[in-house]
Amino acid sequence: MKHEALVKRRMAFTFAALLLAVAFLLPVAGQEDVQSDKEIKLFLKAHAHFQQGNDRLGHNDLEGAGVSLQRCLKLLPRHDRAHFLLAKIRLKQRRLPEAESHIRAAEQSFSAFREWYRQHFSPYLDELRGKQVANRLRLSVLGESNATASCGMRRHITYAATSLRAQDSAINTILAAFPPREDTIPAAYHYVHGNIHFLSGRHDQAREEYELTLQKDPRHGGACNNLANLYYLGGQVETARKYLEKAVKFGVKVNPEFRKALKQNKDN
């Protein structure tokens, strides 16, 4: 209960900080491409639920994480990352049909959500970054001026510098809520989809997803390990051994019994 209350307070504080930052920096002059202050706040509210779900998942609170992510999706049904985390949760719970539904929704929503995100928020974020660069330049100039300024002028410089730092902090708060979007479906999505296929007995589809994972992240040890298992099951022992070696190289703690079985099979 204490952890639940702490999570709720943290979420409320985070959302309040985001809204304060938005109120501080909107409207931005010349920013016709941003649909509205209301739409940005809607995204931030959904983001707060998403972040809460992510935090709860980090504490292995699967049920609580699922509730928070469902709230995120109620606000933004095409939030692909929320669907992705729900797929991971349902996979851990071995609720495979639900996991399959969410990973497919994540993949199908990815492009549309990315374009919506870029169309409505990228120009706004670019302007904020430009404002941040300009503010930091002003801070540098104020710092140089402070060295030779009179006492009265120093008070004005201190006030101006404090205001610029507050704006810089507000910009950082907003930028943290709007992380960059990938151009293509992330490797992690393919890996989770592969795991769902694997546990559902669809080995050919699982192999395809793991191969896509490695195309996007060649050092993905989990995909290498699972491909080793699939090739071993298919009787391709040498290929399985090569993938297992890669998995070990990339830091995966492989099953010692599996490694032993591969060695024995090869020696025979």
Q: What is the strand content?
A: under 5%
CATH fold naming of the largest domain? Serine Threonine Protein Phosphatase 5, Tetratricopeptide repeat
Query: What structural category arises from helix and sheet content?
Result: mainly alpha
**Secondary-structure arrangement, i.e. CATH architecture of the largest domain:** Alpha Horseshoe
- By oligomeric state, this entry counts as single chain
Task: Explain the overall architecture.
It is a single chain. This protein has 268 residues and is mainly alpha-helical. It folds into 3 domains: 2-119, Serine Threonine Protein Phosphatase 5, Tetratricopeptide repeat, CATH 1.25.40.10; 123-177; 187-267, Alpha Horseshoe (Serine Threonine Protein Phosphatase 5, Tetratricopeptide repeat), CATH 1.25.40.10. The chain has helices at 2-25, 37-58, 62-75, 80-92, 96-146, 151-177, 187-199, 203-216, 221-233, 237-249, 256-267. Helix 1 (2-25) packs antiparallel against helix 2. The radius of gyration is 24 Å and the shape is elongated. The N and C termini lie far apart (57 Å). The relative contact order is 0.08.
Topology:
Layout: H1 2-25, H2 37-58, H3 62-75, H4 80-92, H5 96-146, H6 151-177, H7 187-199, H8 203-216, H9 221-233, H10 237-249, H11 256-267
Summed up:
This protein is an all-alpha fold. Helix content is 81%, strand content 0%.
Observed structural traits:
268 residues, mainly alpha, Serine Threonine Protein Phosphatase 5, Tetratricopeptide repeat, 3 domains, 11 helices, 81% helix, elongated
